[in-house]
Request: fold
Amino acid sequence: MYHEVKTAEAIRYITAKPTMIITTLHESGVVNAGVFGAYTNLSPQHIGAAIAKSSHTYANILRSGEFVINIPGADLVKAIAVLADDIPPERSEVAEAGLTTKDGITISTPSIAECAAAVELKLDREVPITSHSFLIGQVTGGWIRQEFLGDDGRIDVFKARAFKDFKYPKPLYFLPGEVIEG
Reply:
């Protein structure tokens, strides 16, 4: 038995997406943060993220031309719930969640100090898609906590306790579990 649809509703069948926090700077200098689950590596220097055109994050990225992708660990799940709330742009989601910022390395936009890693990006291009846009950023720098750096130079998702969205918008996440090599 199959439930078949001939509409875009089928997109809901792909549910496991990496969770990230994007930080941006409001024109007033307030650090804004939003929670996102849709991003992808496009090249060794480019990352793309789907962002709603109605969001503060979108407006801030277009205005400033920069943003930071922060990778949280499981210890920040409660903070994620605050960051996902509808907080006015003149108030910082980062401050509301009780988190602290870390100055940017290559850009003005700060990252979230409590995260496992952060990647700084300059906006390269925008691809409009109905109510969202796919924003492509070029990586300019970033950081990772030393204890989460794997032998291969990548984040060790097990040590960092990086998690993924399991069901959105209901806040349900999962951690990496057993790995079976073939």
User: Anything to note?
Assistant: The first helix runs from residue 56 to 64. The helical segments are 56-64, 77-83, 93-96, 157-160. Residues 16-172 form a domain with the Pnp Oxidase; Chain A fold (CATH 2.30.110.10). The longest strand covers residues 117-129.
